[in-house]
Amino acid sequence: MRNSKALLIVGAALFLALAAVLVAAKWMSEQGAAGTRIAVATIDLNQGTRLAAANLQLVDWPAASVPEGAITDLKVLENRVVRANIGKGEPVVETKLAPAGTMGGLSAVVAAGKRAMTVRVNDVVGVAGFALPGNYVDILVNLESTGNDLGARSPSISKIVLERILVLAVAQESNRDDTKPRVVNAVTLELAPDQVEKLDLARSIGSLSLVLRNQVDPQPANTAGATRESVLGLPPAAPAPLAAPRLEAAAPAPAPVRMAAPAPARTPRADAVLVIRGLDASSQALN
Questions:
Q1: What is the pLDDT of residues 89-122, one digit of tens each?
Q2: Burial class (CB in 10 A: 0-12, 13-18, 19+), 115
Q3: Whole-prediction pTM value?
Q4: Apex 133 CA angle, 131 and 139, nearest 5
Q5: CATH code of domain 34-105
Q6: Domain boundary assignment for the chain
């Protein structure tokens, strides 16, 4: 009796196990049948690369985990330009591609409404080579004390003028996978049109420095800038008085000329006779 119950339990367990295997196999087959074929890269695609059929292929991908913007037709990817690096076996999505018709090179990487501008740097200005493509930097300008024609002097000041600026390329390379510092002589930045104007003016009136910042920190600095007085803890310098305009000395007024009063004409006396001799006239008293 006991043996029959044990055999019954064992048989029920085997039946349930077999049923579970069949259900799991059916579920897996259904999941495979519901998959989607999407385009993936067959090699590492760097920024600015033009796509071709040789570096793409369609693979089965579970329908539940297809990335947004995935491409299912290789024909639409012909001659498209990669905007961000794509690794081997990674799905090719629309957000990592430049707009259709865009030419290759750095121009395909510049975002819509932005501009690319190159500034000259050295090992100090370029943050010792750590300002790499894909990093964000702040731009600092240092203005020396200057004077104007009226004698007033503007103080020396160091101020952050642009914040969270994307580095597109260093020298002539825009590879974002490189993490080793590189000392270069030029850095290309992505800027808005108004920022391009500010940077162009800043580099003409002072010296520039790049300040490396956290890539995920969007907080602005909101600083007033540093002056000689604020660094040394001195009281603010009083503004220099404006020099009075220099006027040319006026010529002295000429002294008034005194006109001699005309001598009163002498009237002849009643008892005198006026004697005229040529041009001379005289009076002669009568005896």
A1: 999 998 888 887 777 677 777 888 899 999 988 7
A2: middle
A3: 0.57
A4: 45
A5: 3.90.1210.10
A6: 34-105, 110-232
